[in-house]
Structures are given as C-alpha cells and as structure tokens.
Amino acid sequence: MSYALFFYSYALTLLTAAVFVGFGALYIRRKKRLHLLVTLLFGLYLIDIMFLWMVEFIPEFAGLFQDMQTGHPFVYTLFNTLIILTYRAILGDLLDHPISNVEAAFWLLCFVGIIAEWSIKNDLYRVAADLIFPYTLQIWTIVSAFWIYARQRDVVERSRGRAAIFFAIVYSTCEILEIISTSNTLRSIFFEALGLIYTVSGAIYLWRRVRENRQQVLNMQPLAFAQEHDLTRREGEILKLLLEHKTNREIGEELCISTGTVKTHVRHIYEKIGVTSREELYDAAASTAVPPVL
C-alpha cells in the first residue's frame, strides 16, 4: 500500500507541476487574471502535495509537523484558507464578479481571526479559528457562486458560466462528503478527489488550448500573412516551414541553404512581425488566422 501511495503521490506531483507551469506560461503570454489565479491555485496544490508527501515518507518531517500543529496550529489552517480564497477569486473572475471591498474586509477579518490563535491561548477560540472561520468562508464561497450565477447567467459568457458551475458543484460536493465523513487523517480522500478533478480538468484545458492554437495556425494563409508583414519571397517560404514546427536545420535542408542563413532570415521575420520567439510567432499567426472553407 505504501508503494502504491508513493507512486500515486509522485505521479500527482508531476501532473500538478506540469499544469502549474502550463498556466504560468499561459499567463505570461496572455496576461489574463484568470490564468494568474489558476497558476496560484496549482502552486498551492503543489506545495500541499509535497508537504503531505514529506509528512508521510520522512519521519523527521512528520515530527516537525506534529510539533507545529501543537504549538502553531493556525499555520496549516491559514494555508488551507488561502486555497479557499483562491477558489473564490477564480469563481468571481469566471462570473465577472470580483471580490468587493466589503467582502475583502470580511476575508481579512477571518484571516486575522485565524492568525490571532497564535496569541490567544483559549480552547474555545482555537475551535473557532480551526473550524468556524474556514467553514464560514467555504459556505460563503459556494453559496455566493450559485447566487451570482443565478443573477448573472444571462450576461455571463456561456462557457465561463459552465466552468464556474462545474467548479462550484465539485467543490461543494467534496466539502459536504468531507464534513459527513468520520476520517480524521491528514490526507482526505475527498480533498484528494477535489484536487485530482481540478488538476485533470486543468490539464485537459491546456491540451485543448494547444490543439486549438495549432489548428488556427494550420487554418491561416501563410502567403497572406507574409504579404501583410512585407516579407520577401524567401522569408515567406521560411515562415511557412516555421509554422509547420520545423527546426532551422530541417528548413535549411528543405530549401538547400545553410543553417546560418536560415537563422538570419528568421531574425528578419521576427523583426518584421514584431515577435521574439516561435511561441509569439505562433500566437501572431493564430490571431490572424482565417476560418477554414467548409
């Protein structure tokens, strides 16, 4: 069982890291707030997965965690609450309803209440900090998502609305199952399911974006794109091969020119189009793609 858990944790870590990097790269290229928030979410997931892995497989770290839970239990609660806040921010972005100043003050008050557990040595307050504050924020996140969707479903883009409802249903279902379960272990099967569903969904989203981007590049007309940017005939030929994802060496072999000549032409192409890398070139080509003729 321990070997199966080890390999599961290892595979999940790799997948989460890949999705984290993928959304980070997407944010760098697109500068969309949603991509930044999702990158933050998977970054927190990655930290949590590695943390659990070390607790389960490194005895010394497990002892340190136990000491932290005894002396400063608010730390892990604060971390989980930050994940809840990220959920709320993602749902708000999907539904075009960001966190207001009043709601931000409410979240800040709860965060301060959790941190205050460090100085208030009271068992009743500890229960409030570890349970009441997080559960209140969870309920608020779920209820507000459905309420906002019900009010704005006619003005929210359909795909974003569906994504928000899927996100909220998965989150609320896993939270309800976790509440009614009797498990007290650090690794919860329902939280595992929650993270796994979101991670797989993120991977599918990234895969679809890559496929759609490549299809857009295939649908564009290289000659028209070359003429639009005043490329020479030779540069147009190289542009077409670049968009087919061929290397400089392969381009040189096909056109019977040296790799150094190819690099010179590629540099001129980048300068005329206003890009600095192949990724930016693919984006520029995809943004001017024409629909395929049916």
What are the segments in which pLDDT stays under 50 over at least 5 consecutive residues? Answer: 290-294
Percent of residues in helices: over 70%
Gross geometry = elongated
Distance between the termini: 54 Å
Radius of gyration: 25 Å
SSE succession: HHHHHHHHHHHHH
The tally of strands reads 0
Main beta sheet: none
- Structural class call reads mainly alpha
Number of helices: 13
| Average predicted confidence as pLDDT | 85
User: Hey, roughly how much beta strand do the residues contain?
Assistant: under 5%
Reconstruct the topology from this structure.
Elements: H1 2-30, H2 33-57, H3 59-71, H4 74-94, H5 101-115, H6 123-152, H7 158-180, H8 189-219, H9 222-228, H10 233-243, H11 248-255, H12 259-273, H13 278-287
Keywords:
single chain, 294 residues, mainly alpha, 81% helix
Write up what this structure looks like.
The chain is an all-alpha fold. It is 81% helix and 0% strand. It is built from 13 helices and no strands. The protein starts with a helix and ends in a 7-residue tail after the last helix. The model is unreliable at 290-294 (pLDDT under 50).
Question: What's this model, at a glance?
Answer:
This protein has helices at 2-30, 33-57, 59-71, 74-94, 101-115, 123-152, 158-180, 189-219, 222-228, 233-243, 248-255, 259-273, 278-287. It has 294 residues and is an all-alpha fold.
